[in-house]
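Why do we care about 3D structure at all? Because function follows from shape, and shape follows, mostly, from sequence. That is the central idea of this module. The next example makes it concrete: a single protein chain, its amino acid sequence, and then its structure expressed as C-alpha cells.
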Amino acid sequence: MNQNRDIDLTEKTISSETVFHGKVFDCIVKQVTLCDGRTARREIIKHNGGACILPIDSEGNAYMVKQFRSPFEEIMFEAPAGKLEINEDPRDCAIRELREETGYVAGKVTDLGVMVCSPGYCSEKISMFLAEDLSFEGTDPDDGEFLNVIKIPFSKIYEMTMNNEITDAKTCICILKAAGRLGYGK
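And the structure:
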C-alpha cells in the first residue's frame, strides 16, 4: 500500500440501527461502505459528551475527587467531571460539576480544549477547563453520587500523573494542559 497517496478515507453509511438506548449512551450498529468499495460493520457508542474541570487555589492546591468506578471495580482519583445534558454548554456543565462535587465556585474559568476519548468506537468528547480564584459555597452531589474531595498540591498530582498513579485519561490530559497553562516545569 502506498502510504503517500492522498485518498478520500470517508466511509458512507448504508444502514444504522440503535440496538440499545440507555440513560448515558446508545449503542448503534452501522453498515458502511469503505473507501475501497467493500462493506464493513461499525459498532458505536453514541455519547452526549462531558466536561471536566481542574480547580487550583491561590496556594497551588488542586481539588480532586475519589470515587468508585464500577467498570474497573476500584476507587479512582479524578478531576471533577460530569456528562453534558442535551444541548448544554460544556463550560456550564464544568462549572455545575465543580460546585456539585467540590462545593467550590470559580472566579476564573479557562478553556483547556477538548479530548476525544476513544474514536474507534465511541463518540464521547470531553471539554476540559481550569478553575481559579476559588470560593467555597458547599457541595450538592447528584442523588446516588458518593465521592471524597481531596485537597492536594498541584505539583503532587502532576507527579502522580507522570508516575501512572492517576490513570483516568480526562484527568491526566487536563492536568498536563493545566501544567502548560500555568507554566509548570519551565
